[in-house]
Amino acid sequence: MFKIILLVIVAVLVVFAIVVALQPSHFRIARSIVIDAPPAAAFAQVEDFRRWTAWSPFEKLDPNLQRSYPGLAVGEGAIYDWVGDKNAGEGRATILESRAGDRVRIELAFRKPFQATNFAEFVFKPVGDKTEVTWSMSGERNFMFKAVGLFMSMDKMLGAQFEDGLKQLKTIAESQPRG
């Protein structure tokens, strides 16, 4: 009887490992919003990490978050380091590409609570006299994240945070004087 139970457990684990291994390695999460402002208004909020405290939901995860901005203030090469509690973690964001009013591409190097490198991108698309802003994040999922993904939807979890951040970004960008 013990052997049968052991064989069943091993079989279940093997099937689980196969199912996990067959999950896609690449992920992409994206949300968009239309802002009643020109692309430059939203772009200015994104390309300057110091402005993220006003709209990014991730800035609110730890009220004692430690921030530093070594190097350039804005644009390509700008860096934002953070150290926080278990909710905010620790990492570095670096702007890899910044094209005025068009896009900002960021490398996110997470150190805690897990190590990972992902990429965030903000795309600003004129829609008449308004702007559609799309915030996305993409990267590779290792075996552990594939397994967790079977039980928790990263798209739903992070997507909701992206939506909240975009709503805050919209409020700020729409309050800027049009120039």
Automatic annotation (TrEMBL):
Pfam families: Polyketide_cyc2 (PF10604). This is Polyketide cyclase / dehydrase and lipid transport family protein. It comes from the Bacteria. InterPro entries: Polyketide_cyclase/dehydratase, START-like_dom_sf. SUPFAM superfamilies: Bet v1-like (SSF55961).
